[in-house]
Amino acid sequence: MAVIEFTPKGDILTANENFLKAVGYTLAELKGGHHRQFCDPAYVDSADYRRFWSDLAAGRFSTGEFKRFVKGGRPVWLQASYNPVRDGAGRVVKVIKFASDVTDAKIAAIDAKGKMDALDKSQAVIEFTPKGDVVTANASFLKVLGYQLAEVTGKHHSMFCDPAFAGSADYARFWQALAAGQYQAAEYKRIGKGGREVYIQATYNPIADDTGAIVKVVKFATDVTDMVKRRIENANLSRQADTELRTVVQQMSGATQMSSEVSSASVQTGAIVNSVAAASEELAASIEEIANSMNAARHGVATVSGSAASANVSAENLNRSADAMSSIVGMIQGIASQINLLALNATIESARAGEAGRGFAVVATEVKNLANQAAHSTQTISKEITTMQTVTREVVSALDEITSSMNQVMDSVAAVASAIEQQSAVTNEISGNMHEAVNAVRAIEETIGRMSQVFGDVVTASEHVKSTVEKLAS
Known about the structure:
Residues 389-451 form the T-SNARE coiled-coil homology domain. Belongs to the methyl-accepting chemotaxis (MCP) protein family. One of its GO terms (biological process) is chemotaxis. The protein has eleven helices and ten strands. It is α+β, with helices and mostly antiparallel strands. The protein folds into three domains: 2-109, PAS domain (Beta-Lactamase, 2-Layer Sandwich), CATH 3.30.450.20; 123-212, Beta-Lactamase (2-Layer Sandwich); 249-464, Orthogonal Bundle (Helix Hairpins). α10 (225-353) runs antiparallel to α11. The radius of gyration is 73 Å and the shape is rod-shaped.
């Protein structure tokens, strides 16, 4: 036991070895000094310190745990009693202090209290009897569940549980295990005031007395409602995302298949377009050849038309010559008729002359025969000229029809040549477009190839995301 004696004013009279050892001083260093040297300066200057010594001087006993400072300023905790000592007249003549060093226990208690205070601030704490009746609960627990202390004290733990669970065999086994001293820890769903769902991460800690009997169960809990609701929501979102990703993967797989089919189709299209381009080139060449032929035909028709026009002119000239010849024949026929008339007159006169005019009659007869022959010849010539005129008119008419037909042919050939030139231009444009189409198809094939690769990468990435989501959901 550490013992030190003071005057009623607090001056040190003496101290035993245990006390000196506890505070680290020698008696010479303490004797005559004041009690305040063991105290915190702020406490020494307080009204409490002055009242402490005035009470002792008045003979009032004081006991408790006191924080004091030993040599070097190290704090110690003493379990002590200050005992006023009176003389025969009843006056307080000194104060004897009996003390025990409880520093280690006090530090442990402070540490434990600090931990409990920290738990009390950060954890929801509630105490139950081994049967589950509520003994007490801290403010954090009451806040989480929404109750006042008076509303839960003496009530059973089942008030915080779903009725179906509270009536189950699992719930009965839960409290049996706690009553048997078995620690329980898990995430629990509980029901707060008004039926509100609350999720807590909690431990149920059976507390035993010195005999090992379970006297109570202390529960430490953390409100994880928001986290659990987010986890449930995330799980729902994960399932939804998984479903959507499955759809995406299927769609992307389908798109990949479609892109492959499109790629194949584009290859076929490229081949067809190449064939069409080649055909267009051949068509352009054929049209160009036809255009050349039509130009040659146009020139030939123009030549024929010119020749027909010249023949028409010649036929007209021939017709005019025939008309002129017909006039001459008419004139010859008139002369022959006059000669014939003269020969008739000469025959008549020679008959009158008798024998003298016989020679003249012979001549007149010859002249008449010649005139008759001339008339007959001119009649033949006239018939031939008439026939020639008829033929000439027919030739002229036919040439007119030929010229008209050739002009129509010329117009048709010109129209066809113009159309062929236009078609040639269109065909050349088509051929050029087809070459551009060939290049475009090649570009499409390359793009589709890249798209197929991208679709494949997206499918792989989607499968990876889907796998990750499934892991998160589980």
